[in-house]
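Re: weekly structure request thread

Next one in the queue (496 aa):
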Amino acid sequence: MGKATVVVGCAVAVAVGLAAAVVVRRRMKKEGKWGKAMGILKEFEEKCAIPVAKLKQVADAMTVEMHAGLASEGGSKLKMIISYVDCLPTGDEEGVYYALDLGGTNFRVLRVQLGGKGVGLVNQEFTEASIPPNLMTGTSDALFEYIAAELAKFVAQEGPEYKLPPGRQRELGFTFSFPVMQTSITSGTLLRWTKGFSIDDVVGQDVVAQLSKAMQKLGLDMCVSALVNDTVGTLAGGRYNNNDVVAAVILGTGSNAAYVERAQAIPKWHGPSKSGDMVINMEWGNFRSSHLPLTDYDHAMDAEGLNPGDQIYEKMISGMYLGEIIRRVLLRMAEETAIFGDTVPPKLKEPFVLRTPDTSAMHHDASSDLKVVDNKLKEVLEISNTSLRVRKIIVELCNIVATRGACLAAAGILGVLKKMGRDTLKDGDQQKTVIAMDGGLYEHYTEFSKCLENTLEELLGEDVFKSIVIEHANDGSGIGAALLAASHSKYLEDQS
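Done, posted below.
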């Protein structure tokens, strides 16, 4: 009995010891997994870090590139496109004008009624439509005919209060939010597509001619009186309401900036200017500098995209790309550390499946158990049963990417202010510098917009920052296009 007891006792002891060893190995394996995941996170954070001194270098580089782009065609990655907008709205405009705002995967058609001096905007109506995915990579005829058909539907709903005088055409401001080299206020050739579009047969062609052809085919009696970039339109819309608006920034699916320059400061401009000023469409999304904190994830996303080597700055700060950077980091974690289990979730392998509105919602999750993060992972990536630890990593990833983007956007704004000489205070100068800001990223991603403004204050200093006003210009690009159609109306001489 005694011997048997000893044998059994030894067997139990061995079993307990083996079980304990398994638990220890599992714990070590688990801790190793988390250690590796945190190592990837830490490495990414360090690569994205951009201290104030480095941000000021980015701003200086932006200013240098602005000078170079103004001096000559091809002198800089910044196109510094002359917009031919040399008379911004004054508030005296009157009549009914239309706007077509093609900003990305959606477009809007607007109708505005202007009451003239002291009256302002009397009425506005709009409709919105999505571009079918097949038209984003099809032919130019198919794309513009679809847009013109939606425009015609909207015009057909015009009420009697918008009746035009006999013999007068409807006038349209066309906001086309892609890189265009303008040749006049009513013409411009497409340089390249961005934002997921790829229609080769229209690159190098006049986009106004393409739209006009489609409108004529439908029998739509309308002329384009102003071709504008969305940022130029936003500036015009802001100026209509506030004479101190001198620049505009779009932070949405893509990103760009425009500002008012003295015409005499543009060596490549040889024409007259009605006001002595000229609005410049910077196309700042194409800015690049050795000071930008690019990571391996950025390089890979750029190389695998539709326009490798282009729009580097935009790919770091705009809404189309922030979620994709986060997805790529999470994919590496899933592959190397199995934080989502032994099998990599298939959805996590799909490019651009994680959109910035999703990452914004996760970043803003204030619940103790990060329930919003949990729900987004289930809805978007089909990942269930995540631990709180995993969800905290995801929130931190969102914070790193958003912070980098917001800080770089602030540095770009500082570069523009430096070019305009508005980054310092002059004795007795009480002038406000107002920047009209539009775009869903700025409007809806609160952590991003707060970080941008806080960073700009840190870069400028408290006293100078007090003279800077960032004004949200909701729907600025659409209304701005209608206003520019009014201020450049072909019937202006008849009205005077």
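The radius of gyration is 27 Å. The first helix runs from residue 2 to 48.
Next request, please.
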